[in-house]
Design a protein that fits this description.
The chain is α/β, with parallel strands linked by helices and about 210 residues long. It is about 50% helix and about 15% strand. Bound molecules: adenosine-5'-diphosphate and adenosine monophosphate.
């Protein structure tokens, strides 16, 4: 299964990708997670990416395209993968098409999650993530255990770019640079549009039905 999860920040891509990863035993490739790990480790990539991420801007195409091209060639991608947060520009989508062609692979589906802007702001300001295992929570919609820690007992943190001003920038960047991909993949016959406003479990059910429909 070779999938893209498409949608604005806060649409639920990471939440759904984690469930799909478990169900189909294929890796989640989140460019955001890869970049945040690089920032934490202060690698050359992390140092370069940090200024863009803090401002809610996209990291330059050539940087993320390089990361994903390499990642897709890893052995654990042999049976499929879930791209989460990539591609985010038409240039990235074109590069992905070329890389997959070279690898003799084809995308199965692009799952596009649609969510109202104000709901996205509420989701992102309430998002918390486990510093140990990476599991995501929402203070209202998917609350952590009563001790305020993750089920793995790790400490939860709030992402720096989940402050309202940065969120608004990220949503504007999505509208401008990423939303054209909806038409891009519609024209390629790969797009499945899903109502991302539904509860987490209901979105998951719809995704699974769409995948079963072939
Ligand atoms: P993305 O990866 O698209 O940026 P996330 O999966 O991290 O989004 O979800 C953003 C926040 O919204 C998280 O706190 C998550 O728990 C919550 N969330 C995800 N899906 C839903 C949903 N269907 N309904 C309500 N909250 C959701
Ligand atoms: P995310 O975790 O997907 O919300 O991404 C967090 C941040 O990482 C974004 O705001 C961008 O700065 C950067 N980023 C993640 N994926 C990409 C991508 N495909 N292209 C460019 N920048 C990205």
């Amino acid at each position: 299964m070779k999938l893209i999860l498409l949608g604005p920040p806060g649409a639920g891509k990471g939440t759904q990708a984690k469930m799909l990863t478990e169900k189909f035993a294929i890796p989640q490739i989140s460019t955001g997670d890869i970049l945040r790990a690089a920032v934490k480790e202060q690698t050359d990539l992390g140092i370069k990416a940090k200024q863009f991420m803090d401002a809610g801007q996209l990291v330059p195409d050539e940087v993320v395209i390089g990361i994903v091209s390499e990642r897709l060639q890893a052995e654990d991608c042999a049976n499929g993968f879930i791209l989460d947060g990539f591609p985010r520009t038409v240039a990235q989508a074109d590069a992905l098409r070329d890389v997959l062609n070279e690898l003799g692979k084809q995308l199965d589906k692009v799952l596009s999650l649609t969510v109202d802007t104000e709901a996205l702001v509420v989701r992102l300001t309430g998002r918390r993530t486990c510093s140990q295992c990476g599991k995501g929570y929402h203070i209202r919609f998917d609350p952590p255990p009563s001790d305020g820690r993750c089920v793995c007992s790790g400490e939860l943190f709030q992402r720096e770019d989940d402050q309202e001003a940065t969120i608004r920038n990220r949503l504007a960047v999505y509208d401008e640079q990423t939303s054209p991909l909806i038409n891009y993949y519609r024209q390629a016959g790969l797009l499945v549009e899903l109502d991302g406003m539904l509860a987490i479990a209901a979105v998951q059910e719809r995704i699974l039905s769409a995948l079963q429909a072939g």
